[in-house]
Amino acid sequence: MKIFKDDDGLFDIASKLTTTAGVCFGIWAYFHTIHPVFEKEIELQNLRGESKTLSVQVESLSSTLATLKQDKSSLGSSVELLRSEKETLINDIEDKEKQLQEIIASFKSASDAAVLNKLQYYSDKLVSAYLLAISTNKGSAFNVIDYSHKILATHVPAQDDKYGQQAYEYFKKYVHAHEGKQIKGDEVVEFSISLFFNYKIDLIKQRI
Q: How far apart are CA 123 and CA 138, in angstroms?
């Protein structure tokens, strides 16, 4: 397409050049003034959108951080509570163990006393029999081992008498350990009393 014709005059040519220059200037002006503004506006809108998104993310992160701080504080309180409960539980266990030891010691002392009382009974029976023999002038003929066997035969404790059974078995062993020995005079009293005291000595040895 031709812009200039052969019959165009100077005015027409000048007019067409002016119009062409105006169009070119308009295009140049658009791409150098208006178009950059549009691009900047679009870029600004995009940045605003990104800023808004980031703001939402920051708020979400802030909320999450606050929740985590709350959870940490709550967890710290729970840990302190557990430590306190642990210390209380340990103290309770120590107290219970102490009470249990005291109860066991009390039962042990009671059981020892029950056995000793029964052995004291056997010892008193032997001494009384010997003193009776002396009073009837039969002291020299008194056989403490034989009399011990009579007591063992006539004083068998009941099966449910735990401490009586224990004393009875100790007395039996004590008598058997002296079988065949000649025990006369003061030795009879010593034999009778030693039944009780030997058991006490054995108890002391067990605790050492």
A: 19
